[in-house]
């Protein structure tokens, strides 16, 4: 929400502040929308963007893009392989749309270096959660992009749409960059229901009840009044004299004007409203599949594919990085009926997004990556499930002007070990930075001790994509 508190308010620091602008509370500490909008180093007009799709729970490589028909039956599972448009390359029967358009995708079969943690953090940063933990930890890519490039017009640089575990564990966090670089994190739970695991509910509660935003103006507050930017800055003179360790007051002071710009422009808020989309395109993003198998209580239904439509709309509104999730791949039991339900939704969603970006002339501008925190075990357990397998994971990439129509890497006969061209999580993140115009091995950001930190200390952009 956006509200003015007209009367003088006495805070614990003893300062009186009038007309306190509040544009929704965005997580721990109640930081405002203004916390999220930066212009450090000048705003860039680049239209390059990244859509980072987290397949929450750990996608099974052998049941998606790396089928192993020659493996023993107790390992290979029940899904048949199908030919793709690429000679000699097979996907599983659950992915017919991507198989038919395989020349438009990159299938990465040799992702290594997983920290083995149920979290989206490594897919957001490339780093283990323990890296630089003493000074706040490493920041997510979107937070770094916000710090270095700022926003593109009246839109936040980084929007986090992730639900489930990545939301509860605050995977897209700013780390040592501080609260001013938190992502814009709207509440989309009314559009996309994702039941949270019992163990995660407490974690989410500890993030605070205001882990969401609302972009509507309150009654009686018009855009003309809000657009008086000089007046707003004068009202915040008191905050300018405040310096607190959390960085909250500094963030509100610095980015208030652009927050108001977002609320009054309408373009960004409209991007989050799918009722403003062409109904025909909305229908295209809604798979009409005869899904077999079983839908687990934490898994999302067919409408979750629309998250990728929302991501595309946000990119068109000027957002540089959008993170989104599709759940739930954590199949410790009933892997095959659950994947028979979930993977066709992912297949439809990715194929539709690719076609949509292509039709809009955005494929060179927008890089899309779909991956998870680790893969799944080749061996099926006694409950018919596949357990965590950090040794090798799958990823799918397209857009961004990369060279598609190829498979990168290979695994052994049971999809258990990488045997060719290992690609680290940080290499994928480095590729994202490169697409956005940031050299991951030369550009640095300063941590809280004043020490410069490279965006990627070991990762290199994936050479096969150039």
Number of domains: 1
CATH class: Alpha Beta
Tally of separate helices: 15
Euclidean distance between termini CA atoms: 44 Å
- Counting DSSP E segments of at least 2 residues, the number of strands comes to 20
Instruction: Output the radius of gyration.
Output: 22 Å
Helix proportion: 25-40%
What is the overall silhouette? globular
Under the CATH scheme, the architecture is 3-Layer(aba) Sandwich
Strand content: 15-25%
User: CATH superfamily, called what?
Assistant: Alkaline Phosphatase, subunit A
The secondary structure category is alpha/beta
**At the third CATH level, what is the topology name?**
Alkaline Phosphatase, subunit A
Quick check: average pLDDT?
A: 85
List keywords for this structure.
466 residues, alpha/beta, Alkaline Phosphatase, subunit A, two-stranded antiparallel sheet, 20 strands, globular, disordered N terminus
Short description:
The chain is of the alpha/beta class and 466 residues long. The chain has helices at 73-76, 96-100, 121-125, 141-149, 165-168, 198-206, 223-226, 229-235, 237-240, 248-265, 267-271, 279-284, 306-316, 335-359, 425-435; strands spanning 2-3, 9-10, 16-17, 22-23, 49-56, 81-83, 90-92, 106-112, 158-160, 321-327, 366-371, 375-376, 388-389, 393-399, 406-408, 410-411, 418-420, 423-424, 444-446, 452-454. α13 (306-316) packs parallel to α14 (335-359).
List the helices and strands and how they pair.
Blueprint: E1 2-3, E2 9-10, E3 16-17, E4 22-23, E5 49-56, H1 73-76, E6 81-83, E7 90-92, H2 96-100, E8 106-112, H3 121-125, H4 141-149, E9 158-160, H5 165-168, H6 198-206, H7 223-226, H8 229-235, H9 237-240, H10 248-265, H11 267-271, H12 279-284, H13 306-316, E10 321-327, H14 335-359, E11 366-371, E12 375-376, E13 388-389, E14 393-399, E15 406-408, E16 410-411, E17 418-420, E18 423-424, H15 425-435, E19 444-446, E20 452-454
């Amino acid at each position: 929400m956006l509200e003015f508190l007209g009367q003088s308010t006495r805070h614990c620091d003893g300062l009186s502040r009038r007309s306190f602008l509040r544009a929704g509370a965005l997580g721990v500490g109640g930081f405002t929308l203004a916390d999220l909008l930066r212009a450090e180093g000048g705003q860039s007009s680049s239209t390059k963007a990244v859509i980072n799709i987290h397949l929450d729970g750990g996608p099974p490589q052998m049941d998606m893009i790396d089928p192993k028909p020659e493996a023993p039956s107790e390992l290979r599972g029940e899904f048949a392989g199908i030919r793709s448009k690429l000679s000699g390359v097979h996907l599983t029967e659950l992915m017919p749309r991507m198989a038919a358009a395989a020349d438009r995708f990159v299938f990465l079969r040799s992702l290594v270096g997983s920290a083995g943690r149920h979290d989206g953090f490594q897919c957001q940063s490339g780093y283990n959660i323990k890296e630089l933990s003493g000074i706040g930890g490493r920041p997510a890519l979107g937070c770094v992009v916000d710090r270095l490039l700022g926003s593109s017009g009246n839109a936040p640089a980084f929007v986090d749409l992730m639900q489930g575990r990545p939301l509860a564990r605050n995977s897209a966090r700013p780390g040592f960059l501080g609260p001013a670089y938190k992502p814009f994190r709207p509440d989309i739970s009314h559009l996309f229901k994702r039941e949270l695991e019992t163990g995660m509910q407490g974690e989410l509660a500890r993030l605070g009840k205001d882990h969401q935003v609302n972009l509507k103006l309150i009654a009686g507050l018009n855009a003309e009044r809000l657009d008086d930017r000089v007046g707003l800055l004068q009202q915040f003179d008191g905050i300018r004299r405040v310096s607190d360790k959390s960085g909250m007051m500094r963030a509100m002071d610095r980015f208030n004007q652009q927050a108001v710009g977002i609320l009054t422009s309408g373009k960004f808020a409209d991007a989050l409203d799918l009722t403003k989309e062409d109904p025909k395109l909305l229908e295209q993003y809604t798979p009409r599949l005869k899904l077999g198998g079983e839908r687990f209580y934490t898994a999302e239904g067919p409408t979750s594919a629309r998250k990728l439509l929302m991501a595309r709309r946000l990119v068109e509104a000027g957002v540089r990085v959008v993170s989104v999730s599709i759940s739930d791949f954590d199949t410790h039991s009933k892997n095959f009926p659950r994947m028979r339900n979930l993977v066709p939704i992912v297949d439809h969603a990715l194929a539709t997004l690719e076609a949509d970006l292509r039709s809009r002339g955005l494929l060179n501008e927008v890089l899309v990556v779909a991956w998870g925190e680790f893969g799944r075990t080749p061996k099926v357990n006694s409950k018919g499930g596949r357990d965590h397998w950090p040794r090798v994971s799958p990823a799918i990439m397209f857009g961004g002007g990369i060279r598609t129509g190829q498979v990168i890497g290979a695994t052994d006969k049971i999809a258990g070990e990488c045997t060719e061209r290992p690609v680290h999580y940080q290499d994928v993140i480095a590729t994202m930075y490169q697409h956005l115009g940031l050299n991951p091995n030369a550009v640095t950001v300063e941590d809280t001790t004043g020490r410069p930190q490279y965006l990627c200390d070991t990762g290199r952009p994936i050479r096969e994509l150039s």
